Amino acid sequence: MNFESELSQGDFYIPECTECMKIVWPPSEFCNHCFGEVLLKKKVIEGKIIEFSRQGDAYFCLVEFEKEIRVMAKILKMPKIGQKVKISECGLINRNYFFHVV
Ligand SMILES: [Zn+2]
């Protein structure tokens, strides 16, 4: 399993080291703590909004997953700090990750 190919199919997996069990972010083949092998063990859909800003008719928010991973995501309805959100869509555009949450 490859992080980017899973993501481009709409599945967000947490890259985790098989040696030290730490989350490896940004995703990499080898752990940035111990150089252990990284596997995609767990699929997540739910995160928490850390902050947001308005851009045009949508909002962009910083969403935290598993208390460690933070990504930028687009949300249509006005969000609240601390709000739980779910990934409705994710993928790759020009090799950049994108996330839509609801
Ligand atoms: Zn490790």
Automatic annotation (TrEMBL):
<feature type="domain" description="ChsH2 rubredoxin-like zinc ribbon">
    <location>
        <begin position="7"/>
        <end position="37"/>
    </location>
</feature>
<dbReference type="InterPro" id="IPR022002">
    <property type="entry name" value="ChsH2_Znr"/>
</dbReference>
<protein>
    <recommendedName>
        <fullName>ChsH2 rubredoxin-like zinc ribbon domain-containing protein</fullName>
    </recommendedName>
</protein>
<dbReference type="InterPro" id="IPR012340">
    <property type="entry name" value="NA-bd_OB-fold"/>
</dbReference>
<dbReference type="Pfam" id="PF12172">
    <property type="entry name" value="zf-ChsH2"/>
</dbReference>
